Amino acid sequence: MHTPFPITVRRAAALALALATVPALAAKTKADADAGLPVKPTVADIVKASSPADWRPLDPDNTLYMELPGGRVVIELAPDFAPQNVANIKLLAREHYYDGQSVVRSQDNYVAQWGDADEAHPKPLKTARDKVPGEFTVPIKNVRHFTALPERDGYAPQVGIAHGFPAGRDPKAGRTWLAHCYGMVGVGRDVENDSGNGTSLYAVTGHAPRHLDRNITVVGRVVSGMALLSTLPRGHEAMGFYGANEVHPPITSVRLAADVPEAERSHLEVMRTDTATYQAAVEAQRNRGGPWNKYAAGYVELCNVPLPVREQAK
Amino acid sequence: MHTPFPITVRRAAALALALATVPALAAKTKADADAGLPVKPTVADIVKASSPADWRPLDPDNTLYMELPGGRVVIELAPDFAPQNVANIKLLAREHYYDGQSVVRSQDNYVAQWGDADEAHPKPLKTARDKVPGEFTVPIKNVRHFTALPERDGYAPQVGIAHGFPAGRDPKAGRTWLAHCYGMVGVGRDVENDSGNGTSLYAVTGHAPRHLDRNITVVGRVVSGMALLSTLPRGHEAMGFYGANEVHPPITSVRLAADVPEAERSHLEVMRTDTATYQAAVEAQRNRGGPWNKYAAGYVELCNVPLPVREQAK
């Protein structure tokens, strides 16, 4: 979750601002604010005040666990947007294709990419397909629901959140696609559209490279453990590839959550994006209140939209 | 420099695409391309073909070296945009204020922030001021030059590059400000506008938090060594602060380049942003060519604009 907290000089001040409830802040505001922004609930306030119906658990059939030595990266897959690629990635996970592979590239302000470091002797496939058609866009009707943002966007005629994923749409063409925001996961490919198959995946670890939208298949989003990828040492060769003498961060395994015993699963839930609560969270980010904020943007860029994730209550 | 290279399955393919010259790619395109995008020079091609006059060295009087155990972070200061805050930061550097301080916060997809970890016993100031007015925006006339982008932006009436820095402008109000893109450096503050003084600084390490624009003073940009900040372990307390028992990454020293012996300086140059060459680099990012790219965005978001940096030729 992107947590747009204020940047204060003192940690104590930051914590006070972040943890205070709105009524508590109200009194402070009258005395302190230099500008006239009204005090409003923050995204964190709205998360705190939400009801259980505002959340949905991750679907174990569309959740991947990538186990790294430092912990677990949880990826929510988006089959609506890439049915064939997601199906192949699930086959790859089920045949344990990724086990023992590694992160091969970490380029600052761009991506971490993982797969088979041994290009001369690629690991053979068992059940998965060697080539899968690129699913750079899909018909709008394929996607369950879409919460359109009123915001204008430079990269798409329309943007919004589709069942928890940031997405663009072209209503005239009847097509939609996932946007390359921080944490989104895509399928590496060579020049031909169908040259990817999920054996090489990447996650965005920098400012959204939205020029990749509609150019490559996006299959999901990291919902937990993102720091395990974003803090990896950057590779020292061109484009952030690790050189032959650099450590390639190992992947212990990748499993579909449904294949993992219940006791070993992560129990995460994501905020539903088709609710009034969610609209309030987006609005809290679009027009942030005082007293720390002096100016409210009146706009929220697609990749700054909050997508809250939390542990399920026991 | 943001290097928007293709994400290929195979490293060899990525290198071939990145290193090929345009003529060499042209033949390949005819056979391989699925889409009809013309082959065009990339940003890297334009950097390679540039002339010495397309570059300017960093000004030692407005360049900071932050020395970390892992290497040097080079920050170009922007006195046009924050004259009083930049002046105070230079005083702080000259009185060795930052030496022995530490990074106190690393929040994923947001910022790394450094300063005095001991809030109970803050390090005393010698020559620097305790409070400096916030310089959230400045008069447009204060800024030497501005290369406007034709792109519409959600956070500002107008955007462009001001002498190497991404900036927003409000021509009606006659004000301009630096944008919170990846790598930009700002001044932490508490609630009051004048509560920052440069003793607490931060760099953006995630997707651009543009909602901070016009809310806080931005003083410059990391032009080299960004990975030393972006790969720091994330802090485990609220907002990415390091806990009492977590390592606070130490800062060896911060010096103004002008105060460092010539032999120990970094000799970097940045591409001038008021030239035809620079316009060509922006256009290469706005409308990327084939054969890997299948769709050209026709748009470049402010924080995806290339800002090339390189070692000076000997």
Automatic annotation (TrEMBL), chains A, B:
A GO molecular-function descriptor: peptidyl-prolyl cis-trans isomerase activity
The residue range of the signal peptide is 1-26
Q: Which InterPro entries match?
A: Cyclophilin-like_dom_sf (IPR029000), Cyclophilin-type_PPIase_dom (IPR002130), E_coli_cyclophilin_A-like (IPR044665)
Taxonomically, the superkingdom here is Bacteria
Look up keyword Hydrolase and say if it applies. no
One Pfam match: Pro_isomerase
Q: Which UniProt keywords apply?
A: Isomerase, Rotamase, Signal
Q: Any keyword Magnesium?
A: no
- What positions belong to coiled-coil segments? none
Ranges of residues in domain PPIase cyclophilin-type: 69-257
Q: What is this protein called?
A: peptidylprolyl isomerase
